[in-house]
Amino acid sequence: MIRLHKKDELSDDEIVDLMGFVNTIITHITNGNKNEERLVNIMGGTVIETESEKLIRRGKAQEIIEMGQEFGLDDTAILKRMQEKIGLSLETASVYLERYGKQFVRR
Questions:
Q1: Which of 8, 13, 20, 51 has minimal CB crowding within 10 Å?
Q2: Are 16 and 52 in contact (CB under 8 A)?
Q3: Backbone angles phi, psi at 75, to 5 degrees
Q4: pLDDT digits (tens, 9 = 90+) for 74-100
Q5: Best CA proximity match to 67, nearest among 57, 82, 55, 53
Q6: What is the pLDDT at residue 2?
Q7: Could you tell me if 50 and 17 are in contact, meaning their C-beta atoms sit under 8 angstroms apart?
Q8: Which residues of the chain are under the pLDDT cut of 70?
Q9: Comparing C-alpha atoms, which of 81, 15, 25 is closest to residue 48?
Q10: Non-local CB neighbours of 77 within 8 Å, separated by 6+ positions
Q11: For residue 28, what are the contacts with CB-CB under 8 A and spacing of at least 6?
Q12: How confident is the model at residue 30, as a pLDDT?
């Protein structure tokens, strides 16, 4: 994978995604057979979110938080925007706001 990335045959996003998949596979393999049923249930009907998609979503959330705070929006309005614009659950949006909202200076 690294060789392909160095030859520009894999983009930055693709290498991050593949490394994430490999780590997930290794984690499940090393857990042994006791998790086999759980793995089948998890992987069977769930859409897998790639690492690059997670990073993009996180970046979008940070932008919404920063812009919302710059424009003087309250936390409720910022949470609502993250839910509408990125499709985050209220719980996930709240975690992002808690994590990234304190990094920006409120005016």
A1: 8
A2: yes
A3: -60, -35
A4: 999 999 999 999 989 999 999 999 999
A5: 82
A6: 78
A7: yes
A8: 26-48, 103-107
A9: 25
A10: 68
A11: 35, 39
A12: 59
